[in-house]
Structures are given as C-alpha cells and as structure tokens.
Amino acid sequence: MEPFLLKPACKASIWGGTKLKNRFHKEYPGDVISESWELSVHPAGLSLADSGPCRGTPLAELIQSPAVLGRSAAAFPAFPLMIKWIDSQRPLSIQVHPDNDYAMAHENDMGKTEMWYVIDCEPDAYLYYGFSREISREEFARRIREDSLLDVVKKVPVNKGDVFFIPSGTLHAIGPGILLAEVQQSSNVTYRIYDYGRLDSDGLPRQLHIDKAIAVTCLSPAADVSPTPVPLVCPQDELLASCPYFAVVRQTVTAPRHGAGDPASFHALMCVEGHGQLQTAAETILLPAGATLFVPADSGPFTLSGNMTLLDVFVPDPALFSVSEPVSSR
C-alpha cells in the first residue's frame, strides 16, 4: 500500500483555540478546535485516508492487514497509539490517566501514556507536570477538598521544541497559549481532578473524577529519564521519546531523503513546521505544516524533500522493553 495523507477527527472544548483552523487549516464547522485526532482508530474519533485511491476510508479499515501495520504493531492485540494536534487557548483541567490494568477493569479501554512536543507557545507559557514534592494519598485528597492542590503541583515553563513524557499515573495539565503535538496510547480515558470552577456548554460544572484519580495518581515528583534507544534511519535524527507503544523521532528535512516502507512498523510523519512533499512512483503528496502522512509498512520507495521538521512516529520493537508499562522519556 502506498503512503497517504490522513484526515483527522476534530474536537471542540471550552479550552480550545483557533490555531488548528487558521494555522493548520483543519476543517471544522465551529470557530474553535481544541484537538485534531490526526491518526486514530479509536471509536471516539476515527481518522480517514485523505489522498490516494483509498481516500475517505477509515484508517481502522486500512490497517487490518499485518503487512500494513508491520511486525511490531501487529504484535499488539489492539492498535497501540493515537496522534493529535492540541491548541490550548485556555488551560486544560488538572488531570491524570490510568494504567492499562485499571483502565481495562474500570473503563473497558486502554490506559494512557503520552508525550508532548511543543510546536509554539506564547511568552511565559507553562504547564503542570507531577508534584513539587512527594505527598501522601491523604494529603492529596485533602488538598482536592480544600482547593489547594495547585500549591503542591509542579509548574514548568514551556518553550518551543520542548518535549514532555507523561507516563500513566502522572498528574498533568497543558497551560494556556500552547500549540503541541501529542502522541499517546490509543485511549480516551481522562480523570479530571481540578477544573478552575469552569462550567460546560450547558452551564453546569464540568465533571470531575476524584475517587478514580486518587486511586491511580503517582504521588511523587515526575522522574526525568532518557528514552530507551531505538534504531534511527539517519544519524542526524533525534529520538525524543520511546516506550512499548510508540517511539517519536524528530527529522529535519533540508535535502532529499530516500526511504521505503519499514517491515517492522508503519510510520506516521507529522509536519510540525515548514513544508515539503513526498514523491512516489505514482504521485506527489504535498506536506504543509499540520499535515500527517501514513506510511504503511509495505510501502514502496519514496522521496521526501522540502524544508520542514517532521515527527516520525512508529511502534518500536517490543524486545527493546523489558516491562509492559512505559518507563522512558527524554
């Protein structure tokens, strides 16, 4: 199967902005887009092929063949990852995601480990990432009740190009004025802990999930560890994150790069900046900023050219990881 562009499922929320529509030209009937689910086979938002002979077909139908997925991805009982663009005009809720065991037992869904790559941000942008010190479960519950949780949450300044790895169980929140790429497990489970007293579109307080969040949150400061090495196609590429579910590599394209499908895994190429094209024997696919391209594992030869920064997302060899839960970050 030849490479093809992806058409996302777009989402609106009270914290979303206009960058995904105005800067990345995403199609959505409303003015605000909070999330663009670029690569998703999750029933909560399916992405489609947006070029080639399969245009309009859900990605979920096109990945049924192990030849398209590749060995590493096909080893999972379900498709392991999801890719998004996120535009936070206002801060997201303080939240946490459960691990696989808890999510399957309580939500019939996978847990969620994720990573963020900051594409752009406003001056003095920040996010919340874990705790500033270790706390007890009793203190966690008390601070939620007393509305003093932010006193013990770590506030981190954000700059363009920053990378954050968020294992399941890590308390976190994206701050205002940030445009980022998110790579995560294929899951839609989020437990909100604190939401600044905001109301939803019906004028009601947004739902919180306090008991479940207390059950799954790691109460220590978030650890900063290096990613487990994975093979790189070009030595100048940079590994940003790796875990059993996904690996993310930053590629800088300034001269033609020749490639082909990788039998180990499909690849998703996210154009985070600049523009370029992918040329196959049959067609030329333009890659503006904000586009995401799916390269099947059985794809034929192609050439990437232009002046652009790409995030190359794929499923690494499971043999590289000795545990079932992700442990690595940059």
Low-confidence stretches: 324-330
- Element pattern in H and E: EEHEEHHHEEHEEHEEEEEHEEEEEEE
Give the biggest beta sheet: 9 strands, antiparallel
Looking at CATH, the homologous superfamily of the largest domain is Jelly Rolls
What's the architecture of the largest domain in CATH terms? Answer: Sandwich
DSSP strand count: 20
CATH topology title of the largest domain? Jelly Rolls
Assigned CATH class of the largest domain: Mainly Beta
Please report the number of helical segments: 7
Helix content: 10-25%
- What number of structural domains do the residues give? 2
Categorize the overall geometry.
globular
**Chain-averaged pLDDT:** 94
Q: Tell me the span between the first and last alpha carbons.
A: 33 Å
Strand content: 25-35%
- Please give the radius of gyration in angstroms: 19 Å
Structural class label: mainly beta
How would you describe this structure to a colleague?
- The structure is a single chain.
- The chain has two domains: 4-69 and 78-216, Jelly Rolls (Sandwich), CATH 2.60.120.10; 238-320, Jelly Rolls.
- Residues 324-330 have low confidence and may be disordered.
- It is mainly β and 330 residues long.
- It starts with a strand and ends in a 16-residue tail after the last strand.
- Strands 1, 4, 14, 15, 16, 17, 18, 19 and 20 form a nine-stranded antiparallel beta sheet that branches. The chain has a six-stranded antiparallel beta sheet with strand order 2-3-5-12-7-10, with no helix packed on it.
- The protein contains seven helices and 20 strands.
Compose a concise summary of this entry.
With 330 residues, this protein is mainly β.
